[in-house]
Amino acid sequence: MNGMRFIVTYNCNFSCSSCRYKCGPYKKGVMDSNIFRNKALKLYEEGYKDYLIIEGGEPFLHIGTIYKYLKKIKNIDSKKYIITNGFWGKMDTYLYSLSDLKEMGLYGIIIEYDYFHSAFIDILTIKSAIEKALLNGLNISVRAAFLTRDISVKADIITFEYIKEIRKNYKNIGYIFEDANFKKQSLLIKPKSAIREKVIFYNDFKASKKSDAAICKLDS
Prior knowledge:
Keywords: Iron, Iron-sulfur, Metal-binding, S-adenosyl-L-methionine
GO molecular function: catalytic activity; iron-sulfur cluster binding; metal ion binding
Protein name: 4Fe-4S single cluster domain-containing protein
Strand content: 15-25%
Radius of gyration: 16 Å
Number of helices: 5
Number of strands: 7
InterPro entries: Aldolase_TIM, rSAM, rSAM_sf
Structural class: alpha/beta
Mean pLDDT: 90
Pfam family, one: Fer4_12
Strand order of the largest sheet: 6-5-4-3-2-1-7
Largest sheet: 7 strands, parallel
Helix content: 25-40%
Shape: globular
């Protein structure tokens, strides 16, 4: 599986301690839509065709720019995802915004929720975001970060309880579990197929290690 990931902004309405890019409200700026298009087209031609992920920061803080991104790459035949913290879950206008994004080619939403995010948003808002995405026929995954592999610390136990609660209501959505340790960022559940991913950073941010996140489904 070959894909591309764009970190389009470091601006975020949350300041999670688990954030690998150290995003927050004080970080400003967003990737220019023409730069986004040119990079995406080049990577697509190089064979990174299976998926395209738009991540931040919080992309939905710049929804007008997200519209431009999707419009400019509408002819790229890749599964297109947006990673979000779901802050918009209880905002009715986003039901229609998601509909517009789907019309422009959005395939799925990846919503982040765990112990770290729960300091800024409640699980009811996350469920509302899931509902809005499902009503628009979008593919949904929930991404959570864990500090340990055996769920042996309080933060991980809390995250695990959140995941169980979400799974009670939504059996057929995907889950992505990641290691929250910045020095060994990796997936806790490995995908069945190998991932080859190219990451493009806004303003040439230098990550400590290549990202290897992927879409993973838990068995029911």
